[in-house]
Design brief:
318 residues; mainly alpha; 3 domains; 3-stranded antiparallel sheet; 6 helices; 3 strands; 67% helix; 3% strand; rod-shaped
Length: 318
């Protein structure tokens, strides 16, 4: 029993012999049913004619009692005709019985053929579904193969061109490509596979974020260091340990942490004169204010430019 190629709507082409046998059985059963119906109609007509003949015989019997010779001849002919009709009815009954027996045999044969076709249909449908799943997976792989280079290029540009003015375009390209790949996987991949792929992608994304966060803390970039130093100076905190400044007009102030962060850096202590002095953090020893190598005035030690002369110094990227 050979399976042929599957059709577009899922109907598969089975063994031609079984299909022909099933079709021939249907035609034979239909012919037998038409023949039985025709013979039953003939039986009905013969019975109705027999009833008329019997009525005629009843009338003739009354005439025979009066010794009517013509009535006797007519009665004999009617009996002969009645016997012939009854013989025909019996013959048709036997033929109908034989036809019913033949129809039952064909029904049993048709049932067996249909059972075999059901088995073949299930196998063909399963074969078709496997081929269809493989086709969808190949379509998904082709689409992902087209989208993946765009994703890799966008990731490369995002890593290498962070300071570029085109960074938002690279970011939009990367996000659009990433979500499009996700939609393709959701549409074509089986639910179980997509679930595992989604969980794995989320785990990888979280790991990347954790690695990025740890690297940002352990080895911050120069721009991040400058930003942190600027914010620390604005809040009068050590750029290294966040210990509060104790210099100038702030030497004898009492600092409370939440007040320091919310109010002290908003309103500077009033003083008639601004006192500037070289200052190191008393807790960690970090140099916060130092003499400018160019103008000799006190400048911020952890910022690039002197606020008096604009001289630039190198900030260590630790």
């Amino acid at each position: 029993m050979i399976l042929a190629a599957s059709g577009k709507d899922g109907e598969s082409v089975y063994d031609p012999e079984l299909k022909n046998e099933s079709k021939m059985s249907d035609e034979q059963i239909a012919d037998i049913r038409r023949s039985i119906s025709k013979k039953e109609q003939q039986q009905k007509i013969l019975r109705e004619g027999s009833e008329d003949i019997e009525k005629t015989l009843d009338r003739l019997n009354a005439s025979i009692i009066e010794n009517d010779e013509q009535a006797k001849e007519l009665a004999a002919a009617a009996w002969q005709q009645l016997l012939e009709r009854r013989q025909q009815i019996m013959t048709l009954g036997n033929e109908i019985l034989e036809a019913n027996v033949e129809r039952e045999k064909l029904d049993a044969q048709k049932t067996a053929i249909d059972s075999q076709l059901d088995v073949v249909r299930e196998a063909a449908q399963e074969h078709y579904e496997n081929l269809y799943r493989q086709h969808r997976l190949w379509v998904a792989f082709y689409k992902i193969a087209v989208l993946l280079p765009f994703l890799l290029v966008s990731v490369f540009l995002l890593i290498r061109c962070r300071q570029s003015s085109y960074f938002p375009i690279y970011l939009a390209l990367g996000l659009a490509t990433f979500f499009r790949i996700g939609f393709v996987m959701f549409e074509y991949f089986p639910a179980d596979y997509f679930k595992y792929i989604l969980v794995g992608s989320l785990i990888i994304a979280i790991l990347c974020l954790l690695i990025y966060a740890i690297r940002s803390v352990a080895k911050p970039t120069f721009d991040r260091i400058i930003k942190q130093n600027r914010e620390a100076y604005e809040r009068f905190l050590c750029t290294n340990c966040e210990f509060a400044f104790r210099s100038g007009t702030r030497t004898f102030l009492y600092f409370v942490r939440h007040i320091l962060l919310l109010s002290i850096h908003k309103v500077l202590p009033k003083s008639d004169t601004i006192e500037e002095e070289i200052y190191r953090c008393p807790y960690c020893g970090t140099s916060l204010y130092e003499s400018c190598s160019s103008c000799g005035k006190v400048r911020h030690a952890q910022l690039e430019f002197c606020r008096h002369c604009g001289c630039k110094k190198e900030i260590e990227n630790e």
